[in-house]
Amino acid sequence: MEEYWKYSEEMMNFIEKSPTCFHAVACIKEMLLEQGFKELRETDRWNMEGGKGYFVTRNDSSLIAFRLPEQVPFGFHIVASHCDSPSFKLKEFPEMAMENTYVKLNTEKYGGMIMYTWMDRALSVAGRVVVQGKDGLETRLVQMDKETVVIPSVAIHMNRDANKGMEFNPQVDMLPLYGDYLMGDGMLLEQVAEKAGVKREDILGHDLFLYVKERGRFYGENDAFILSPRLDDLQCVYASARAFVDSMPKEYISVCAVFDNEEVGSETKQGADSTFLEDVLWRMGEDLNWSRSEYLRMIAGSFLISADNAHAVHPNHPEKADPTNRPYLNRGIVIKFHGSQKYATDAVSAAKMKMICEKAKVPWQTFANRSDSLGGSTLGNISTAHVSVSSVDIGLPQLAMHSAVETAGVKDTKYAVDAFRVFFSQGVSESCFTE
Ligand code: ZN
Fold first, then answer.
1. Could you report the per-residue pLDDT of 35-45, keeping only the tens digit for each?
2. Is 271 in contact with 262 (CB distance < 8 Å)?
């Protein structure tokens, strides 16, 4: 039983160290380097050996790691997830002095968060800065752990409609209070520069975001639930990375792909809608001296699990869920279906996923949107538009998706790790994958 909490605790540690996508990628990199994986750069020639593991990053915010089996592989076994979360991004000149008293930060939305959940909560700033180094431009990660900013809500006495459903204007209602003008010069970028070990004028560029400072924790009877920021989708990122480093592939090249920019549509050079995955798989084939047709044979024999968290049935709003496909927290991996293929799952890929779960002794459940609701989209159909492999969309059940803090089940992290381990190490017999 303790195993469930162990994996979820490790996942919460990972989330705490990953306030932004840049930090999440740095964390996974550290984990891979510790396990003897070798970093490859997209600008270098690659030289790979069977039985070894490698990884590539793009923009320091997306990462693809892979491990080659000793024998000639049958194809790729890929798990894709995303490391960005909805947040507020700081604008280029972020400080806004107001009436010579307050200093606010000028921000804009990144992705679609539930805005009111970001109010009256301890937030801070993290991301990356680009500075002029000795040999050219250098990127430094920063996380302001001491500085706290808060987006204060308007008192109920000044807004009697506060509990009747509110509209929030991101340029007016959502700017965090940073400093008192009289008690300092209120320059956040000075503090950021100090943290990065440079002067403010040395910062030539920045990608800085607000993040929720609180650490994830267990709650509920028997600590059955997890309350944490960024569970979508760092819970799946953690589970896939953990399983990936723990597994030695036998017949398939195992691939752990972590993409940035899912929350803003994936259409960036490092998002799932870029050529990143395709480029890495193709270069791998080239380095292993595959012909074009050999590469296409590998792709035809491959399988992709797109892992992005799913909506569990809400305790106060059970009517929001589909009448017959109703996932619950702590009941296992959710296989997602969508008639118009917003999710990549089909009968064949669903069957494969169920067999993987059964092999891993992990429960599975199903999700579909109500037919009268739109729902969200995810990575599966986007990445398979570039690399056309058989794919399934899955996720771990959670509540309050895109809230500043979200709820998940303590057991489901381990379920995902166990299922991905089976998938990466090809514990599923070949006959299971024969169509
Ligand atoms: Zn997501």
1. 999 999 999 99
2. yes
